[in-house]
């Protein structure tokens, strides 16, 4: 068992066009040291590939004059992973080892599970059924991670006017600009098997990192369920893109 305690040092509730922001501490208590090591590693992973809340899948930006996404990071410098393949691969191996210390991981099972029909389940509307059977947010053999160099990205505290600046390249970043331009974004004008739809969130996560060191700033694209034909097309688009030339594919230790 473990306990996670959040201590908020400062908080600004923001407005409709300025982001809610705050700083604080996360205090983890566990009975076993190996559980503490695993939870610390999982938090580190969470900081680097996504956000929290409704905006977890996108970096903080403005779209159609409304705020979208989330930005969060550890303020401990040595907990921030750089734009470097070896640093990421070493960290992911440490994460896998931390899991092994708690419970041995069977790599042969690390594939996307398929929904199993349940004759006793009540009939649901299509969107509810899709949501009930979602399995895309699994960092397994069918996931892919790319680091995309995006120097000069602005830290949210440097954005003076979100309505005017929030949709600019130096806020959105190279990866999000590519995604918006790719034709795979969700909704009626995009690809629902990649960008998601109402009731089925996007299969693509994008996160901004190292924004307090703008020359080292980069973004992470995480694609879940790359074995799907449509998401395979998106994966190929990433690999072929001239828009994001500076990118690194991270080799996952469980592939």
Structure description:
The radius of gyration is 19 Å and the shape is globular. The chain has helices spanning 33-49, 85-102, 126-132, 162-165, 169-181, 192-195, 229-240; strands at residues 2-12, 21-30, 61-63, 66-68, 144-149, 204-209, 218-223, 247-250. Strand 3 (61-63) and strand 4 form a beta hairpin. Mean pLDDT is 85; it is low at 114-133. Helix 1 runs antiparallel to helix 2. It is of the alpha+beta class and 255 residues long. The protein has a four-stranded antiparallel β-sheet with strand order 6-7-5-8, with helices on both faces. It has a two-stranded antiparallel ribbon with strand order 1-2. It contains seven helices and eight strands, in the order ββαββααβαααββαβ. The longest helix is centred in the middle third of the chain and has 18 residues, at 85-102. Helix content is 29%, strand content 19%.
